[in-house]
Design brief:
With 136 residues, the protein is of the alpha/beta class. The protein contains 4 helices and 7 strands, in the order βαβαββααβββ. Strand 6 and strand 7 form a beta hairpin. The longest helix is centred in the first third of the chain and has 11 residues. Keywords: ATP-binding, Cytoplasm, Magnesium, Metal-binding, Nucleotide-binding, Transferase, tRNA processing.
Length: 136
């Protein structure tokens, strides 16, 4: 599926469309260059899922935990600073990935071998006009 985000004012609509078409799996791996809009799009998805907390990139924390509608838990990962897979093992990634709760992952290429089989790969690309194309 493809979703075009024409500008920042369009992002809530795009996030809602993403949620309405999310596959059954709960782990979503977001691929895209630096500045493509991964964090911004994940933030919009979380807001549409009812998160009231401040949503930021977990670059230094590796994972942020948010509470969505109905006391659901949402996990947001950023593996950009991971140097060795041992760091991911040490944080207990399996408890998150197999919790049944949504997991949104930035920089999944650094942990490819650990992603579950039913992971949904999401690519965000910036077009020349500044719009974004989200494919999954």
């Amino acid at each position: 599926m493809e979703i075009r985000i024409n500008n920042i004012d369009d992002i809530a609509r795009a996030a809602r469309r993403f949620i309405d078409n999310m596959p059954q799996g709960k782990v979503f791996a977001f691929y895209g260059k630096m500045g493509a809009g991964k964090t911004t799009f994940i933030k919009a998805i979380c807001e549409e899922l009812g998160v009231k907390d401040v949503i930021t990139s977990p670059t230094f924390a590796i994972v942020n935990e948010y509470e969505g509608d109905g006391n659901s838990t949402i996990y947001h990962f950023d593996f950009y600073r991971i140097k060795k897979l041992d760091e991911v093992y040490d944080m207990g990634y399996e408890e998150y990935f197999f919790s049944g709760n949504p997991c949104f992952i930035e920089w999944p290429e650094l942990i490819e071998d650990l992603l579950p089989e039913d992971v949904t790969k999401v690519t965000i690309e910036e077009a020349e006009d500044g719009s974004r194309l989200v494919t999954f």
